[in-house]
């Protein structure tokens, strides 16, 4: 970068600004996804307060929190098909309309069943966006800024959680829902003016549109032209093969599909089993336990939300300068340790070895957990799902990967109230901590490094592993 001329620096700045504006559209949709995840934390206490003495059961409370995560799965199922069939940009615009409808349904609901229906719609959209957002951002971004932009999507989810909690702290939940509906509205307007993903256009043999789109996002420098030529050549080969002999089944057998798929399935499961979305969905109840009283729970909740956002801003900077692997291992290790230590501390309080909860200790451990988890294992899967799959299998690969987070998301959020009642908060956090530890060991051995590599280089890496193993086997046989 030091050898760049002033003209080149100006050009890079202009390209970065153009990409950032379009990424902002996806960012706002992810903001709505975060609001969906965090909305139950302010919705449930207000619904219980409105009910007076006849409060909702634990089962109903768990459904209010978890039904959006159940709907994630159905959104994941259609996401891959829609992004491959209609393109990344149009799919996000359609998604925006459904998102707006979901928030409006919640805002004007006059019964618990309509609230559940609205929550289902917004959760469906959250699942739809899960693979779609990272794929679009990954395809339009230059390798130098791809990590930053992809990490910003996780930051937007955390910011959405914070915004929903902030709205719910000062406003009635109906007004909060309407405000949350403005996020996808503005996002849709931005995406309306965005060029389609050049990789998708190339895969559909729309070469002229692909060139125009690529030049809009990346410019016309010699390096960018070389990348464009390689992408068009690669995608043209794939289109010809599809028309002649290849089928989807053949593509799914390729190592550049199933290897990253296995890694991403486990990575997404690890993220959810660390309990990050349980803390988003039941923040007020968790804060009551950690504080030892009901006072200042909303202030503590907002403090945790701000800390989460700060951690993700830090993650954006770190991903720009460091590799994915070291961040993942560091984050997973200290996430598991903070959860295990927190569980031991709460257990000592329960058996009266420690007489009372000391907020300085409990909130300190929770703050450590929030920071280290959101630096690495929370944003990284969303970063990498847009990087590791080949273009022709990216839709189904990212869709299947994010389906795992949907299943795990629903499982953790739905079972959390029952786990709190049966094995206590200490037992629940111990389970999350041990799960994260086991997952981190897996990442240490299997997670590849993608920083600074083009999408074609990442694809070739998985393909080359098979060739290297085959060559090694031949060498051993010949000996």
TrEMBL record:
Signal peptide: none annotated. PROSITE patterns: MFS, SUGAR_TRANSPORT_1, SUGAR_TRANSPORT_2. It holds the Pfam family Sugar_tr. Residues 18-451 form the Major facilitator superfamily (MFS) profile domain. GO terms for cellular component: membrane. Keywords: Glycoprotein, Membrane, Transmembrane, Transmembrane helix. It is a multi-pass membrane protein. It is found in: Membrane. The chain crosses the membrane at residues 21-43, 63-82, 94-115, 121-140, 147-167, 173-194, 261-284, 296-319, 326-348, 360-383, 395-417, 429-447. GO terms for molecular function: transmembrane transporter activity. PANTHER family: MAJOR FACILITATOR SUPERFAMILY (MFS) PROFILE DOMAIN-CONTAINING PROTEIN (PTHR48021:SF68), PTHR48021. This is Facilitated trehalose transporter Tret1.
């Amino acid at each position: 970068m030091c050898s760049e001329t002033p003209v080149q620096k100006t050009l890079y700045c202009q390209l970065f600004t153009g990409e950032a504006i379009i990424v902002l559209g996806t960012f706002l949709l992810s903001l709505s996804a975060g609001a969906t995840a965090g909305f139950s934390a302010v919705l449930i206490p207000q619904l219980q307060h409105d009910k007076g003495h006849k409060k909702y059961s634990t089962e109903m409370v768990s459904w209010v929190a978890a039904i959006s995560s159940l709907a994630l799965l159905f959104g994941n199922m259609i996401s891959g098909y829609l992004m491959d069939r209609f393109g990344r940009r149009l799919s996000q615009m359609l998604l925006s309309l459904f998102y707006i409808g979901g928030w409006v349904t919640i805002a004007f609901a006059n019964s618990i069943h309509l609230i559940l229906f609205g929550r289902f719609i917004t959760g469906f959209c959250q699942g739809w966006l899960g693979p779609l957002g990272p794929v679009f951002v990954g395809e339009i971004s230059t390798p130098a800024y791809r990590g930053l932009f992809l990490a910003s999507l996780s930051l937007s989810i955390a910011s959405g959680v914070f915004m929903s909690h902030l709205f719910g702290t000062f406003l009635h939940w109906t007004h909060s829902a309407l405000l949350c509906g403005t996020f996808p509205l503005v996002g849709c307007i931005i995406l309306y003016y965005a060029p389609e993903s050049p990789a998708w256009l190339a895969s559909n043999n729309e070469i002229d549109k692909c060139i125009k789109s690529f030049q809009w996002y990346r410019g016309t420098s010699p390096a960018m032209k070389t990348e464009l030529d390689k992408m068009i050549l690669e995608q043209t080969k794939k289109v010809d093969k599809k028309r002649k002999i290849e089928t989807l089944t053949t593509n799914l057998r390729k190592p550049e599909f199933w290897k990253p798929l296995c890694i991403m399935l486990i990575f997404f499961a690890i993220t959810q089993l660390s309990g990050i979305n349980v803390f988003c969905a039941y923040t007020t109840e968790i804060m009551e336990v950690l504080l030892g009283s009901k006072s200042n729970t909303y202030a503590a909740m907002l403090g945790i939300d701000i800390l989460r956002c700060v951690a993700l801003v830090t993650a954006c900077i770190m991903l720009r300068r460091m590799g994915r692997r070291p961040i993942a291992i560091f984050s997973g290790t200290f996430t598991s340790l903070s959860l295990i230590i927190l569980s031991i501390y709460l257990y000592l309080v329960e058996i009266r070895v420690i007489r009372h909860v000391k907020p300085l200790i409990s909130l300190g451990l929770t703050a450590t957990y929030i920071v280290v988890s959101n630096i690495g294992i929370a944003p990284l899967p969303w970063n990498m799902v847009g990087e590791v799959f080949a273009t022709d299998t990216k839709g189904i690969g990212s869709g299947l990967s994010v389906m795992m987070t949907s299943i795990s998301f629903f499982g953790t959020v739905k079972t959390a109230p029952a786990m709190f009642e049966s094995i206590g908060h200490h037992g629940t956090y111990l389970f999350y901590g041990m799960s994260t530890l086991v997952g981190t060991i897996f990442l240490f051995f299997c997670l590849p490094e993608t920083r600074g590599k083009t999408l074609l280089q990442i694809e070739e890496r998985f393909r080359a592993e098979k060739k290297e193993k085959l060559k090694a086997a031949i060498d051993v046989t010949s000996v």
